[in-house]
Amino acid sequence: MVCGAASFNGGKTAVTGQCEISWFSALCDDDYEFLGVPDPMLRSSWEHCRDIVLTAETGGFDNILLPSGYALGIDTTAFAAAIATLVRRIRLLMAVRVGESWPPQLARQIATIDRTLGGRLTVNIISSEMPGESLPSAPRYARTVEVMKILKTMLNGEPLDHDGEFWKLKLDPPRVGTVSGKCPPLYFGGLSPDARDAAAQGCDVYLMWPDREEAVRDIIADMRARAASYGRTLRFGYRAHVIVRDTEDEARAYARRLLSKLDAETGAAIRQKSLDSTSVGVTAQAALRDAADDEGFVEDGLWTGIGRARSGCGAAIVGDPDQVLAKLRRYQDMGIEAFILSGYPHQAEADLFARHVLPRIAHGPLT
User: Fold this and answer.
1) Is the Cβ–Cβ distance between 344 and 38 less than 8 Å?
2) Is-above-0.85 flag for pTM?
3) What's the burial of 212, exposed, middle or buried (CB within 10 Å: 0-12/13-18/19+)?
4) What is the pLDDT of residues 254-271, one digit of tens each?
C-alpha cells in the first residue's frame, strides 16, 4: 500500500493512493477544553479513554494511538487488553516503554492482545529509561534495538538465541503467537543521531513530529539513506494535532480559544512533567515554536501554540477542510504513509475530523 497524490477537481477529491489515518486516546492526562486548565471530566480514566476509542472507531479511523507515560494517566497495556474486547474494526497502536519491560514477557503480552483483537495490534516502541535510572543516549537506544530484534524473533515464531549487551537469552517463542504469525508493525520515533540509527536498524514505520515541510523532506531522505545502509527500507508516519472548522477564520479562532486561559508558568510546568522534556525531539519542537509568527504559525497551516502546554508533539494543522486536506496531501507527496492525529478535546475533535475530512481522503490500515 503506497500513499499517492490527491487533487481537487470541481470540489471533489480524486485520490490515487491511500494512507493510514489514526486518532489518539488521551491515556496520559492530556485532554483539555482549555489548554493548561484541568477538567475532571477529561482526566484519563477507563471510561473517558474508552469513549475516545469508540468514537474513533465509529468515525472510521483506521488505528488509534494508546500513549504511555510512567508518571501520568493510566497503564497502556492494561487498557489495550480491556479495550480490545470492545472494538470490532479499528486497530490499536499500543505504546510500550521498553526500558520498563522484560522483552520475552512483552512478546507474550503483545501476542495475547493481538489475539484478542483478531490480529489488529500495532506497537509504538518508546526508548524509555527505567523510572529513576539515567542511561546515556547511545546505550539506551542500543538497548531499544535489542528489544526490537528480540520481539521480531519471538513474534515471528522463531527460537531466540540472543547474546547482546543488555540481554543474553535462549528461549523458545511464546506458545501463543499473533494471528498473522508475525511480529506486528513496530512504529518508532526520535530525532537524535542515536535514535535515527536505532530506527534504521529495527523499526517498520518511522514517526515524525510536526516540522516545516522542507525539514520533513530532509528527515525522510536521511532516514531512507540510513535504512539502506542496513539493507532495509522504512515507511513514514507523521504525528500532529489538527483543528478543522468550516472556515479558516473559525479554525484560527478556536486555536486562540484553546490558549485563552493558559499562562506561561502553567505551560512550563506541564512541559516539565514529561520524562522526555529534554530530548532532541522536544528541543526541536521548542525551536519550531520560537520561530513562529505572532499568532504561532511557523508556515501556512502549521500552528505551534499546542507546544506551549505540551511536551512532545507540539503543533497542529489548522484550517478549513480543503486546507487540511491539502496539507495532508503535501505530506503524502513527500512519502508519508501514516498520520496520527489528535485534537482538544479528543473525543469532540475526532468527530469533527471524521465528518469533515476523513470521507474525502482514501485511507486504510498499513499492510
Assistant:
1) no
2) yes
3) middle
4) 999 999 998 877 656 765
